[in-house]
Amino acid sequence: MGVLRSWLGADRAAVDARVADLERLLRTRDEEPLLALELPAPEVDAVTGYAAWAGTYDVLPNPLIRAEEPAVRRLLEDVSPGRALDAACGTGRHAAFLAERGHRVIGVDRSPAMLAHARAHVPEATLAVGSLLALPIPDASVDVAVCALALMHLPDLRPAVAELARVLRPGGRLVLSDLHPTMLTLGGSALYQGADGTVGRVAGWVHRHEDHVAAFSVAGLEIRACAEPAWSEEEVPLLGGPFFALAPEALRAAFEGLPAALVWALERRA
Ligand SMILES: C[S@@+](CC[C@H](N)C(=O)[O-])C[C@H]1O[C@@H](n2cnc3c(N)ncnc32)[C@H](O)[C@@H]1O
Question: pTM of the prediction?
Fold first, then answer.
């Protein structure tokens, strides 16, 4: 990727440096323990994956959260305190932010293991096990809702977006975030390491901008803002993990500036 991204800019020196990286890595692959290392990361469903991930989710550095969080907070911070929903709340990251800002928060998630951490993290929130496809919440009952880094785990966006619109009052704000579809298309995924060291990836589906716009339109949601925070130099070492040490410039050339997250602010039509 680093070669491809330098090539069209006719940056000959950058291309030569990346090709030199490849030659060096191929020459030393038998000596480099990291290159010989297999990384078995079996794909698992969301319930299995988040049961394994719950204990480390808030502990291990997560480059996607670093990129996504400021963009989501910017879209939530001007909403007056009211009744707030964190749908697929996980360990309660955005629920805690909303509670700090004076909202009465309800958190819903399908994973009891993730919710157990949310309970300790945001004791003032009302938390319930539930699905994005059937939220245990009455129609038009929340002023603001957030659903972060979860819709990529659903094969079809539309039923969950319609369900989020159902519980939002007319004029209410919905903020959505996800791993950017470009990253999923390039092979990115929700990769995790559990407390026992096991590695896995939670199954994910690409939802392009056009899929989002179509789902919003059917659900009666108006787009108010869209943000696409990009990977910065601080996140690239985290993205590369142990491989960053082998070819740091190549990893920077491959990832820096690519969109990391896709974030939307929506309003329910009156
Ligand atoms: C990457 S975590 C995000 C947690 C939290 N929103 C955050 O941004 O830190 C994804 C969460 O979505 C939840 N999830 C996935 N599919 C779901 C579904 N169909 N219904 C409810 N929760 C779901 C998982 O259990 C997990 O807690």
Answer: 0.95
